[in-house]
């Protein structure tokens, strides 16, 4: 009986495994098709000056306009793309699209500041990344400071020597670095000294209970001080309330991003935001 039980358990796992494998293969095939059919889109979320509200830039965030499942968040396909090796292709699509968008905005005379693109761990280590960036920048005429790269802490802390080399190449291309989800990785901070990112983005998890949560107050203040003493600017992610905004502004966090300012929107929606903001600033 024990043998039977073992046997059926094995086949249960095998079936479950087959099922997951099938699903993964299907998703991969669909993503390849989606690249061909141009079903991915970038949405843009503004980053603004905490004091003046001026537009400093935006973050490009990928979505998948799936023919059946509707607009899919990156959580539904980025991890899968990393697993099946499609991430560098998807990343290349993102980089090319962001560069083309920058060129269109410039042509239209719209000033949007720096456009940030997220680069995930495997994509960062892939030999194609630098080629992709070089080609996309050349083709679109993007100039230094118009495009920047967001990387998470954990990416920066693995294999620091290779990382430093890649970052130096990015700098040579005129691409500043922004540390995403800051505070959620391990807290060996020595990489900051070596890599000198332009910005730290305080993870939303530290922002969401501000200003009420004292522990978060202390942490966020400390991050701002640390960053400033290294000459790094601080972005607060996920700002949703005026109380958070006021607290962050008062402790010297210079850049804000979050639903309070604007949700991520498609290019048209973001353009409307950019025009509105620059008009208000001119009026004020
Ligand atoms: P992230 O880079 O940390 O992006 C911030 C996420 O927080 C975005 O989710 C954004 O929509 C959301 N967010 C912004 N403000 C608020 C707020 O006030 N409240 C709340 N609750 N959420 C807010 P999204 O667009 O779903 O992206 C999730 C993650 O997927 C990103 O986290 C990033 O790690 C990844 N991702 C997005 N686009 C790309 C891409 O083109 N390439 C790669 N490799 N990863 C991407
Ligand atoms: Mg990001
Ligand atoms: Mg982030
Ligand atoms: Mg995040």
TrEMBL record:
Residues 24-278 form the EAL domain. This is EAL domain-containing protein. Signal peptide: none annotated. It comes from Ideonella paludis. The lineage of its organism: Bacteria, Pseudomonadati, Pseudomonadota, Betaproteobacteria, Burkholderiales.
